[in-house]
Amino acid sequence: MLATEMEQWSWPPRYDEGYRPPATQPHWFPGRETMPPERRDELIMARIREVMRYAWRQAPFYRRKWAEAGIEPDAVRTLADFEHVPVVRKEELRADQLANQPFGSYLCVDPTEVKHVNGTSGTTGRPTAFGVNERDWRAIANAHARVMWAMGIRSEDTVLVGSPLSLYFGSWGAYLGAERLGARVFPFGAGTPGQTARTVRWIRQMGVTVFYGTPSYALHLAETARTEGVDPAELGLRRLFFSGEPGASVPSIRARIMKEFDALVYDSGSMAEVTPWMHLGAGGEEPGVLCWQDLVYTEVCDPATLRRVPYGGEGTPVYTSLERTSQPMIRLLSNDLTRWEAPDAERGRTYPYLPRGIYGRIDDMFTVRGENIYPSAIDDVLMADPDYGGEHRIVISRAAAMDALAVQVEHRAELAEADRRHWAGRVADRLRLVLGVGAHIIPVPPNTFDRTEFKARRVVDDRDLLGEITREGAAR
User: Fold this and answer.
1) pTM for this model (two decimals)
2) What fold characterizes domain 1-362?
3) Using CA atoms, how far apart are residues 251 and 383, in angstroms rounded to an integer?
4) Looking at the domain 365-475, which fold is it?
5) Distance CA 355, CA 335 (A)
6) Which of 135, 320, 346, 457 is deepest in the core (most CB within 10 A)?
7) Where are the alpha helices (DSSP H) in 69-214?
8) Which segments of 163-276 are extended strands (E)?
9) Alpha-carbon distance 324 to 140, whole Å?
């Protein structure tokens, strides 16, 4: 019965590696992607019980955690019951790996089965190792191929992977998906001096049609192309898809990238820990992403109660792997922020929808005079402005007894000095309207800030810096 309802749906996952849909077919698995969501939820609940039973047998981490909460897998019979399963936090994973090196006691296979190792950089704490067996590696490839197929990527495409080929799972996931759907894959990477200029030349030389990276890097690539005397719109790219940071679903950033390259833009991405991270991925040409619930079950939850919020509500995603056998994540708390909408068959797939994608992290939020502010909201305003020069820095400080928000903003090179004060006032008015709090705008020349080939870091929380940059701005 399941084979006819949900193509190649099994536990543990097994995929037909020779399968690929006809190029004109919009769905990789038409039944799984278009079935009534209520029926899919029933099948997902059955899968969740299978995954929980498996983890209970194989992983001391989960057995201990659930026993302490008084929960056994067979007692979880509905998705409402599942909301009472305790969440897993990243700090728990790090602590467990420290005590049970190298992969933690949530590894569900013999360590000798681990054939691929990825991980976090460890820049904010102990690195987390992701141990992936060959079965999971192939399941990731098949899952990402499905989502990239929904983005319109086909076997005749040449896909350039523009982010670093390192521990970062994003690059490898994009590589695997492109390879599985039969495309030519060009793992160019990024990160060495002068490489972006070489990227421009290679895109033209190899006839690259699809680019993967971060939105920040795409904008840097467009600037570099112009410096090299090349119009980005003439590079021949048809599609660009992104992960790693907000942007591809932020209206002004998305519009800017589409205009620069005269190409379609797609958003994707959740967390490396629950790879296939493209389980949040575009399913058409509108902004936002779908929750591909048959790959990773996603709940958008109230950060305080960790219970699902109704459709239309805002919350933090909680993820449960449905295809991972090596290190399955079961109710992993993301601390990201999103808003979700109910499935709508008119979108072509019957999955819940995140219209703005993942647009921030709860721990990236900062508060100025009682207003909660996310950096992506500032990015959206600035990138929509015609005189924006390409980069900015957000500085939070305290002047006297009040928190203060300043934004150093590059202006267009052509913007006359006499017009900059008026421009700064216009930007400040727009930010006040959007944020609900005033911001001091400091115009700075183009190319003041370094460009990034990976994820942008634009926020500086420094109580002593505001006076310094204000003086520098006035001196200019």
Assistant:
1) 0.83
2) Rossmann fold (3.40.50)
3) 9
4) GMP Synthetase; Chain A, domain 3 (3.30.300)
5) 18
6) 320
7) 79-82, 90-99, 134-150, 169-180, 195-206
8) 184-186, 210-213, 239-242, 264-267
9) 9
